[in-house]
Write a structure and sequence with these properties.
The structure is a single chain. The chain has helices at residues 10-22, 25-35, 58-69, 74-92, 96-104, 107-119, 150-166; strands at residues 6-8, 55-57, 126-132, 137-143, 173-178, 187-192. The chain is α+β, with helices and mostly antiparallel strands and 194 residues long. It folds into two domains: 6-85, no CATH class; 97-192, H-NOX domain, CATH 3.90.1520.10. The strands form two sheets. Strands 3-4-6-5 form a four-stranded antiparallel β-sheet, with helices on one face. Strands 1-2 form a two-stranded antiparallel ribbon. β5 (173-178) and β6 (187-192) form a beta hairpin.
Length: 194
């Protein structure tokens, strides 16, 4: 039997900081009002009181993402996922960390450690990635993820692309190939660069 899906607050916290910076007060107030009286969140605190190192039920994270995506077209949700991924990666890879990522980490290194990185944030699911140097291409898969959510899945795909850009790869493109939300058995993204 699979465990209850939980997520560390790190991504959600950064997404909420990004949301607050990018949206007018009325949008922020609507998001908070729609979450009341959810005990997972402190509606008066920055980033709803979400702590980066705390584990949260995936359903609570899903509610926030649903509210962020409410009323958006598919293209707008895709842009939202990339913006959340870019903002999160930017916040965690600044200064000396950005230098280290750019100088020491490669797509192969990332692929070798993708499950370890995933398990630091998600309580369920398996990640794997295959890098094809000659084609300047990587295939990223997520399987057995009880915490799946369509926007969160796209954020996970885009996060790999964001890290690839920090590594210095140019013209990184993330193309969703499969998703359990569309009835596929697994979630797959193709990443290309030049």
């Amino acid at each position: 039997m699979r465990g209850k899906a939980r997520m560390k607050g790190a991504m959600l916290r950064e997404a909420l900081f990004w949301y607050d910076e990018r949206h007018e007060q009325d949008a922020r107030d609507r998001l908070r009002a729609a979450l009341a009286p959810d005990p997972a969140f402190d509606l008066s605190a920055p980033a709803l009181g979400v702590l980066a190192t705390e584990w949260y039920d995936a359903s609570a994270v899903h509610r926030v993402l649903d509210l962020m995506a409410d009323g958006k077209s598919a293209a707008e949700r895709d842009a939202l996922a990339r913006e959340i991924a870019d903002a999160t990666v930017e916040r965690v890879s600044h200064g000396v960390y950005r230098f280290l990522v750019r100088k020491l980490i490669s797509p192969h290194f990332y692929a070798r450690h993708i499950q370890t990185l995933w398990s630091q944030v998600h309580s369920t699911g398996r990640r794997e990635m295959v890098v094809e140097d000659a084609a300047k291409r990587a295939i990223s898969r997520t399987v057995d993820w009880d915490g799946h959510h369509p926007l969160l899945c796209r954020v996970a795909m885009e996060t790999v692309g964001s890290f690839f850009r920090v590594m210095g790869l140019e013209d990184v493109r993330v193309t969703p190939v499969a998703c359990v939300d569309r009835g596929d058995e697994t979630c797959v993204a193709e990443l290309t660069w030049r």
